[in-house]
């Protein structure tokens, strides 16, 4: 290159544009804010509020940005504890519409005070809005009377001096049979006869602590048929006793008295004595020996309030619960027969068996009765909810055969809903439903006692109150927090008797506070006369 060329190249290099200086990269905060000392990084970021709407209400946002991981078919229960999404859940909707379970039943387990009855009351309330009738066939606390009254249902009170339930009353079976013809009519009448015979035998079993003999059941069966032929109106137990005492030829034939009235008296002596015990009082009182106080209807929600029966009267509790179940499912059968004939619309029922452990321990035959109900709920067109505290309640029955049957209640349930449970329950629970380690730790954490606030001298709300894990088979459980509306708060209060302070030791000079509590005193007041 010549000297002149080199000089031109150097001049061109000097006159060329210099590249602009590079700007430093702009710092951006992370998902939790600025990192570093004093920068203000947040350890926990509160989730944004989520709202739901139909495609009509939020049509501008269709299609949805993300999907939900929880079903939206059934009664709204609460929010998923992990995603915040709404969970809709009930055994009838998940069986009938969503096809998520193969059996329209739910079993609820959890320690006392954590809301087991509350979640079932929410399901019953929502199902009533869908047209399903709640049936509480034996409320032992009571927990459902306020709900059924709010739904415009029927409250049937039973107990000593509180009401009667005639086990020989066929209910609406005769009226329904008059509207039916052919096989349907015969089936309704045969079902009513079978239920009455079964209930008389069950009461005798409870009275004797042993079932009646085959001959005695045959005599009862024939005596009931004679009673239906000769008696006008609705018969009661004293009428059945009189038929056996009168010794009609039809009954004497099945008693095999060989033409001897003395032999007949000998054969029916024990049966007659047991029926006199049922009619005259005794352990079971006169609840079953008088006309039914409040007949059950089939087109409204119903609760049998048996809370007036003391827990010490286990035999009476067992007898009343069996009678309530017999009356309830008899009504369901009548409704199904009329619907099958096209005479009435199809009705579905949501049967609630709360405090199941008390019912199972009430007497012989209770486990078999519940076992039969849990196997036939699909055929009867009913959904079912069974509630108990722990698996230990079911596995503590005296008979090994009964324990295995009680365990089957959990295994056959379409869904298992668990609240807070102690760690000792996990091995027994695992034998019926598989739970992951994380799910077990969640349930154990929910059963912890509430914290104590020394400034107010009151306990905080238990950590597991209203929290449940919904399990369907081996699928991962759905943790949910049950949220109540202001309207539901009053009917879900099971501590009403503790809202008012005790009146023992108060004087007339001590006014009551506006909140119902007694004023503080420094001296022992003079008790009232």
UniProtKB/TrEMBL annotation:
Give positions of region: Disordered.
Answer: 1-34, 494-529
Give residue spans, biased composition: Basic and acidic residues. 505-515
Source domain of life:
Bacteria
Question: Which Gene3D superfamilies does the protein's record reference?
Answer: P-loop containing nucleotide triphosphate hydrolases (3.40.50.300)
* SUPFAM superfamilies attached to this UniProt entry: P-loop containing nucleoside triphosphate hydrolases
| InterPro entries found in the cross-reference section | P-loop_NTPase, T4SS_component
- Protein name, UniProt field: ATP/GTP-binding protein
Which source organism does the UniProt entry give?
Answer: Marinactinospora rubrisoli
* Taxonomic placement: Bacteria, Bacillati, Actinomycetota, Actinomycetes, Streptosporangiales
């Amino acid at each position: 290159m010549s000297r002149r060329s080199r000089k031109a190249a150097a001049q061109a290099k000097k006159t060329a544009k210099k590249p602009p200086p590079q700007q430093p990269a702009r710092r951006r905060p992370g998902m939790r804010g600025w990192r570093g000392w004093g920068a203000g990084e947040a350890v926990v970021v509160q989730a944004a509020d989520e709202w739901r709407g139909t495609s009509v209400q939020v049509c501008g946002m269709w299609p949805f940005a993300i999907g939900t991981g929880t079903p939206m078919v059934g009664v709204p229960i609460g929010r998923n504890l992990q995603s915040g999404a709404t969970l809709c859940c009930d055994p009838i909707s998940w069986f009938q519409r969503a096809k998520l379970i193969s059996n329209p039943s739910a079993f609820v387990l959890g320690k006392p005070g954590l809301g087991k009855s509350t979640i079932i009351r929410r399901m019953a309330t929502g199902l009533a809005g869908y047209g399903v009738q709640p049936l509480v066939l034996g409320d032992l606390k009571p927990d459902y009377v306020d709900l059924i009254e709010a739904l415009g249902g029927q409250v049937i009170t039973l107990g000593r001096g509180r009401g009667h339930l005639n086990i020989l009353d066929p209910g609406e079976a005769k009226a329904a049979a008059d509207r039916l013809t052919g096989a349907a009519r015969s089936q309704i009448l045969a079902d009513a006869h079978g239920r009455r015979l079964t209930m008389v035998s069950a009461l005798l079993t409870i009275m004797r602590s042993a079932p009646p003999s085959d001959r005695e059941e045959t005599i009862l069966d024939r005596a009931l048929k004679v009673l239906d032929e000769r008696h006008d109106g609705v018969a009661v137990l004293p009428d059945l006793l009189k038929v056996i005492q009168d010794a009609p030829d039809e009954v004497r034939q099945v008693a095999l008295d060989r033409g001897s009235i003395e032999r007949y008296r000998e054969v029916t002596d024990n049966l007659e004595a047991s029926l006199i015990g049922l009619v005259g009082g005794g352990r079971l009182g006169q609840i079953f020996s008088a006309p039914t106080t409040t007949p059950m209807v089939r087109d409204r929600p119903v609760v049998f309030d048996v809370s007036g029966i003391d827990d010490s009267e286990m035999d009476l509790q067992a007898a009343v619960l069996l009678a309530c179940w017999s009356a309830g499912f008899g009504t369901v059968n009548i409704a199904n027969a009329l619907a099958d004939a096209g005479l009435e619309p199809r009705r579905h029922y949501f049967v609630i068996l709360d405090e199941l452990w008390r019912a199972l321990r009430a007497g012989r035959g209770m486990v078999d009765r519940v076992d039969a109900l849990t196997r036939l709920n699909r055929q009867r067109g009913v959904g079912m909810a069974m509630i108990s505290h722990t698996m230990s309640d079911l596995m503590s029955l005296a008979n090994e055969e009964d324990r295995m049957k009680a365990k089957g209640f959990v295994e056959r349930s379409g869904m298992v809903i668990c609240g807070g449970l102690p760690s000792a329950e996990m091995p027994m629970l695992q034998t019926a439903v598989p739970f992951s380690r994380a799910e077990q730790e969640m349930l154990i954490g929910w059963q912890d006692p509430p914290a104590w606030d020394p400034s107010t001298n009151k306990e905080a709300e238990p950590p597991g109150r209203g929290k449940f894990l919904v399990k369907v088979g081996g699928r991962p459980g759905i943790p949910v927090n049950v949220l109540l509306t202001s309207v539901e708060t009053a009917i879900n209060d099971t501590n009403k008797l503790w809202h008012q302070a005790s009146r023992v030791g108060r004087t007339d000079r001590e006014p009551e506070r506006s909140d119902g509590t007694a004023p503080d005193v420094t001296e022992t007041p003079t008790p009232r006369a």
